[in-house]
Design goal:
By secondary structure, the chain is α/β, with parallel strands linked by helices. The chain is built from 7 helices and 9 strands, in the order H-H-E-H-E-H-E-E-E-H-E-H-E-H-E-E. Helix content is about 30%, strand content about 20%.
Length: about 260
């Protein structure tokens, strides 16, 4: 017998199946859970507004400067802020350098008291106590006190809050009521030169979905997307859950140069 043994080559290790990147594998259950979280947060915020508390993400100073720059570049004269709360958005614009007129709508008395205090020393900042809708009696679910003013249509007030020839930028913070407010602008919808509104990135959440908002803004208002401001993410995946869209209706700046939208 030979003193040597034939050695078999060691088995070649088999590589495990390649897994898809974690970002590409988002379980359906997690998506539904994130949508539920977003809806709970929205309902909690609405409930808090009814008793006089206004909960918002705190934007940084750069956001205010960027918004003011965009409004100046497209010659916006007046910002109509619907669902103004305590005036955080208008204050952000002022701190960013916007010097045009601001008209704030806030039906909740407790919030409106703080809003009036914020606007007290600003002659170009007007506060009105109305919720807005698309019918005179629209607003069974609009945020207002039981003895507060009935919801109004924007077209009923348009000539009171704007001057002929002004370029108007509409900012909406009324989750689930965005289309009603825009519908209430009636014949004056064509005079909306810009829009900022919150949207959801998830189907099934209350309020406008990202795609629905773009279809509305582009198709009915003729606006182009200029900026996206993140407003909430899923910390476990980094997925964007909601954001604010900033859209403007002209593709030329104040000097007449062509300006391409940020997103096609």
């Amino acid at each position: 017998m030979s003193q040597f043994r034939t050695l078999e080559p060691p088995p070649v290790p088999t590589a495990p199946p390649t897994a898809a990147p974690a970002a590409a594998r988002v379980p359906a259950g997690r998506v539904h859970y994130a949508a539920l979280q977003q809806e709970i947060a929205r309902r909690a915020r609405v409930a808090l507004r009814r008793i006089g508390y206004d909960v918002r993400r705190h934007p940084d100073d750069r956001t205010g400067r960027e918004l003011a720059l965009l409004l100046r570049r497209f010659e916006i004269d007046t910002v109509v802020d619907v669902g103004a709360g305590v005036g955080a958005y208008a204050t952000l614009l002022r701190q960013g350098g916007f010097r045009g007129r601001i008209v704030s709508f806030e039906p909740e008395p407790a919030l409106r008291r703080e809003l009036l205090a914020a606007a007290a020393d600003d002659d170009l900042w007007t506060v009105l106590p109305y919720a807005l809708g698309n019918e005179p009696d629209d607003g069974a679910d609009a945020p207002r006190a039981c003895d507060g003013p009935v919801p109004r249509r924007l077209d009923e007030l348009w000539e009171e809050i704007t001057a002929p020839g002004e370029r108007v930028f509409l900012r909406l913070d009324v989750p689930g009521r965005e289309t009603r407010v825009i519908g209430g602008a009636g014949e004056f919808r064509d005079e909306i030169a810009g829009l900022q509104t919150g949207v959801s990135m998830l189907r099934g959440a209350d309020g406008l979905h990202f795609d629905e908002a773009l279809t509305l803004a582009r198709g009915e208002l003729g606006l182009s997307l200029m900026n996206v401001l993140p407003a909430g993410t899923d910390p476990s995946t980094g997925r964007l859950l909601c954001c604010e869209l900033v859209l403007v209706g002209e593709d030329r700046d104040s000097e007449g140069a062509a300006v391409a939208p940020a997103f096609a």
